[in-house]
Amino acid sequence: MMEFLAQGGFAFYVWSCYGMAVLLIAAEFIALRKRRRTILARLGRLNRMRDAEEQA
Amino acid sequence: MKRHWFHFSAPSTFYSLAGRMTPWFLALAVITGLISLYWGFFETPDRLGGSNPQKEYYRIIFVHVGSAWMSMWLYVVVAGWSALGLVFNTRLSYMMAVSVAPTGAIFTFLALFTGAFWGKPSWGTWWDWDPRLTSELVLFFLYVGYLALHSAIDDARRADRAAALLAIVGLVMVPVIFWSINCPDPNQCAALHQRSSMSDIDGNILFGMLGLTFAFWMYSFATSFMRVRSIILEREADTTWVAEQLQKEGVR
Q1: What is the pLDDT of residues B13-47, one digit of tens each?
Q2: I need a labelling partner for B58 at 20 to 30 A (CA). Which of B8, B202, B211, B222 fits?
Q3: β partners of residue B48
Q4: Could you say which of A28, A36, A50 has the minimum Cβ distance to residue B106?
Q5: Are the beta carbons of B64 and A17 separated by less than 8 Å?
Q6: CB neighbour list of residue B179: distance below 8 Å, 6 or more residues apart
Q7: pTM for this one?
C-alpha cells in the first residue's frame, strides 16, 4: 500500500494531477446542484405567487 | 411509432429525456473510470523506455490524455451545436452549446495542469512555449472568452448568436493543436511535447488511457445534461409546461 502511494518517489506529481481532477469534478458537481436548487426555488416562488393571484 | 427528430429539439421534451439519461451516463462514467484507473495503476510497468526511462510519473498519462482529448472534442461539440443553432434557429442547440462549454473549459485546464505536473519531472520544467502547450492555452482562453461573451450579453438570444459565431471562428484552433505535434515535416515544428502515436504504446497503458477518456466523455454527457436542464428551466420559467413539470416533480 505504501509503495502504491509513494509511486516510486513521484507521489507529489502523480497525486497532484489526480487530486486536481477529483477537485474539479467535485466543484463542478456542487456548482451544478446549486444552480438547480436556485432555479427550483425561484420557480417555487413564482408558482406560489400565481396561486395567490388566483385566489385574490 | 415514428417521430420526427425535431421532436426532441423542443426544450420541454428534451428536459425529461436528459433527466432520464443522466444517471446512466454517470454510472457508465464511474464504472469505466474505476476500471481504467485500476488497470492503469496496477497492470502497467513502473518504468518505460531504455536509457532515459519515463518513471512512475508517466501514470499522469491517463488523466492527461483523457482531459486533453476531451478539451478538443468538446470544443468541436460546442462549435457543432452553435452551427446547428445558427442554421436551424433551434433554441435547444444553443442551450446545449452553452451547457457543454464549462465542462470543456474544465478539461482544458486539467490538461494544462496535469501537463505541467508531468513536464516538471519529465522535462525539468513546468511550462514551455512549445507549439502544443501554447495552442492548448489559447484553447482555454477561447473557452473562457466564449463563456464570458455569452454571459456579458443580457438578451439570451443575442448572447447565443454572438457566442456561437465566436465558437465557430475559434474552431480553427483544434486542428492547430492536433498538428502542432503530428505535422508532416518534423523539422518545421520541432516540439518538446512527445509525438502521439497509438501503435508503439504498451497495450495495458493504451487500455487505461482510452478507458479514462471514455469515462470523461460519459461524464461530459452527464454534466451537460444536468446543466442544460437548469438552463431550460431558467429560460422557460414563465411557460405552462414548466409549471406542470414542477407539479409532477413535486416542487412547491
Answers
A1: 999 999 999 999 999 999 999 999 999 999 888 77
A2: B222
A3: B54
A4: A28
A5: yes
A6: B189
A7: 0.92
Residue B202 — φ and ψ, nearest 5°? -60, 135
Of residues B97 and B47, more confidently modeled? B97
Q: B206-221 pLDDT, tens per residue?
A: 999 999 999 999 999 9
Contact B106 A39 (CB under 8 A): no
Q: How far apart are CA B247 and CA B84, in angstroms?
A: 32
Q: How far apart are CA B168 and CA B78, in angstroms?
A: 8
Which set of grid coordinates corresponds to residue B65? 490524455
Q: What is the pLDDT of residues B75-93, one digit of tens each?
A: 999 999 999 999 999 999 9
Put simply, whether B53 touches A (Cβ < 8 Å) is no
SS3 A48: helix
Q: With contact defined as beta carbons under 8 Å apart, do B138 and B107 qualify? A: no
Structural domain boundaries in chain A: 24-56
Q: Work out the number of other CB atoms within 10 angstroms of the CB of residue B73.
A: 18
Mean pLDDT, chain B, integer: 89
ipTM confidence:
0.91
CB B212 within 8 A of CB B44: no
Domains of chain B as residue ranges with CATH = 19-249 (1.20.120)
